[in-house]
Amino acid sequence: MKKLDNEKELFKKALTVGGHYAEKRGAAQFEASDSAAERALYIYRLLAHDKLIQPLPEDQVSQKAIQHKLALWASRLPQD
After folding, report:
1. Closest by alpha carbon to 42, among 33, 24, 29?
2. Helices and strands in the chain: count of H runs, count of E runs
3. pTM, entire model
4. Residuewise pLDDT in 10s, the chain (80 residues)
5. Whole-angstrom Cα distance, residue 48 to residue 54?
6. Using CA atoms, how far apart are residues 62 and 70, in angstroms rounded to an integer?
7. 7-75 topology per CATH
8. Domain map (residue ranges) of the chain
9. What are the two backbone dihedrals, phi and then psi, of residue 37, each rounded to the nearest 5 degrees?
């Protein structure tokens, strides 16, 4: 897994955009007390369920892998 140049910024973008996606879809309502790890896992599972990203094999799911997968997804989003 090759690290992206701006992976942290892309991960933050993925959390923001993914959170809005989950709320618009009616699947989640995130609160300020939710940790980034919890949000990331939920957004990853939702995007994989909706077939917007390819899911990782269950034995390879880790926080680092989820962050990378979400950063890749965010890098492919339109700039708007």
Report:
1. 29
2. 3, 0
3. 0.88
4. 677 778 899 999 999 999 999 999 888 888 888 899 999 999 999 999 999 999 999 999 999 999 999 999 999 988 76
5. 6
6. 12
7. Four Helix Bundle (Hemerythrin (Met), subunit A) (1.20.120)
8. 7-75
9. -65, -40
